Amino acid sequence: MKYSIFSLAKAAMSGHRGWTRAWRDPVPKDRYDVIIIGGGGHGLATAYFLAKEYGIRNVAVLEKGWIGSGNAGRNTTIIRSNYMLPGNVGFYELSMKLWERMEQDLNYNTMVSQRGIINLYHSDAQRDAFARRGNSMRINGIDAELLDAEQIRKELPFLNYSNPRFPIMGGLMQRRGGTARHDAVVWGYARAANDLGVDIIQNCEVIGFQRTNGRITGVETTRGNIAAGKVGMAVAGSTSRVAAMAGLKLPIESHVLQAFVSEAIKPLIPGVVTFGAGHFYVSQSDKGGLVFGGDLDGYNSYAQRGNMPVMEDVCEGGMAIMPMLGRVRLLRQWGGIMDMSMDGTPIIDRTPVEGLYLNAGWCYGGFKATPGSGLVFAHLMARDEPHPEAALFRLDRFRRGAMIDEKGQGAQPNLH
Amino acid sequence: MRIACPYCGEREVGEFSYLGDASPKRPHYTIDDGTDPVVLEEAFNEYVYLRDNVAGTMREYWYHGGGCRSWLIAERSTLTHEFKSVQAAPGAGAAKVTLQGE
């Protein structure tokens, strides 16, 4: 069923009783050409691009819970491509371009809203660093504007411009950045992949790999064994646990990152704002709640919940630039489990185990990468060679000393 | 989380800093001791970059910077955040060399 203003009007006439399932609930087949483990945004996008761009339609996505129940449903929905280093720049811009046409591609309203992202700077040195980042973006064809304090004041008059410790001196703006609706991204990819023949199998946890002469030939699941030509892992947060079943030890630690939503208020924040002197970022959802977050808690965790010291730290960061935040009540708070790679950059590569492919290490930046990650991972699995824009996201880059340390911090807590 | 420091009693986690898994030990080698460079590289690659990333009870270093300033080794579940034990670990945190035969 194609969604349009006409299908909406038609359904409205019949009291909205005519809507059908957006994707099937299939029984797992005995064999698939490709199995993707993990029904989050990345896994579903991978399946979609495998079917759409690479003609591989005998694909299953296995999800242990319901699709989008992991980090795809636990992020702060920010999209941007304001990266500086080779490897990251091209990849995140590829992803950004896919965001820009996602709704047409998927025939689904993913509420992509390019309302802009501003990274505030608070010192001369930080301005210089942001100017350099902005220049790097611009020579790579990505939009970036360096704004001074007066220009920022016009865009964001509600910030605290009289903080003597961390004065707002300006900011780096990417106007094409913004937010999208995270659940809709999951549902949109699920529906589009399903239409292309992909089986989306929920409540199906992978509990082991089947191997013949070292090569992966299938997976053992809570719904029985399923044979597969190739298996891809897109289980950020639990990557080490799944990879361990194949005997792999990876350069990844799992850490908890908290996020917060306030009660709904009238429209206030036009885009995304980040505080440069601490770690705090905030946007306003279409429902009116302020969505914000900050640092990792800083200890290994799979528990999907965090602790008070980081909540305080995040709120202090918010109060430093937006004292009015103190008057707003917190509505919800949650934790997601981040795949922290050792250099802060994702890993999209083959593994030493033949037939097993890895999409991992997204740290706290996986949401914005969803469409790009799906495309390049599908490319890797279909062609057995990295996509040109993801050619540097190799698993062996640590051993080779070819790390992509955009922020100079990976999983190490005292570097954050 | 609250951590029962053996010196200070139970304190909230904000007083502590985290270092991570206490199990990996720095590979032992001296310049020109004849070890195959490939073996060394492999050992250091594993020590510096690879992680068990335990899902379950993990032995880990915590530093009580907001209290007695002692290094501690805690056993904590990464699945539930429950602490099983906290012990003093004098001299911990510094890179510990594995001696041959250890």
Automatic annotation (TrEMBL), chain A:
<dbReference type="GO" id="GO:0000166">
    <property type="term" value="F:nucleotide binding"/>
</dbReference>
<keyword id="KW-0285">Flavoprotein</keyword>
<keyword id="KW-0547">Nucleotide-binding</keyword>
<feature type="domain" description="Rhodanese">
    <location>
        <begin position="34"/>
        <end position="78"/>
    </location>
</feature>
<dbReference type="GO" id="GO:0046653">
    <property type="term" value="P:tetrahydrofolate metabolic process"/>
</dbReference>
<protein>
    <recommendedName>
        <fullName>Sarcosine oxidase subunit beta</fullName>
        <ecNumber>1.5.3.24</ecNumber>
    </recommendedName>
</protein>
<keyword id="KW-0963">Cytoplasm</keyword>
<comment type="similarity">
    <text>Belongs to the SoxB family.</text>
</comment>
<keyword id="KW-0274">FAD</keyword>
<dbReference type="InterPro" id="IPR006076">
    <property type="entry name" value="FAD-dep_OxRdtase"/>
</dbReference>
<dbReference type="InterPro" id="IPR001763">
    <property type="entry name" value="Rhodanese-like_dom"/>
</dbReference>
<keyword id="KW-0560">Oxidoreductase</keyword>
<dbReference type="Pfam" id="PF01266">
    <property type="entry name" value="DAO"/>
</dbReference>
<keyword id="KW-0288">FMN</keyword>
<dbReference type="GO" id="GO:0008115">
    <property type="term" value="F:sarcosine oxidase activity"/>
</dbReference>
<dbReference type="GO" id="GO:0005737">
    <property type="term" value="C:cytoplasm"/>
</dbReference>
<dbReference type="InterPro" id="IPR036188">
    <property type="entry name" value="FAD/NAD-bd_sf"/>
</dbReference>
<dbReference type="InterPro" id="IPR006278">
    <property type="entry name" value="SoxB"/>
</dbReference>
Automatic annotation (TrEMBL), chain B:
<dbReference type="GO" id="GO:0046653">
    <property type="term" value="P:tetrahydrofolate metabolic process"/>
</dbReference>
<dbReference type="InterPro" id="IPR038561">
    <property type="entry name" value="SoxD_sf"/>
</dbReference>
<protein>
    <submittedName>
        <fullName>N-methylglutamate dehydrogenase subunit B</fullName>
    </submittedName>
</protein>
<dbReference type="Pfam" id="PF04267">
    <property type="entry name" value="SoxD"/>
</dbReference>
<dbReference type="InterPro" id="IPR006279">
    <property type="entry name" value="SoxD"/>
</dbReference>
<dbReference type="GO" id="GO:0008115">
    <property type="term" value="F:sarcosine oxidase activity"/>
</dbReference>
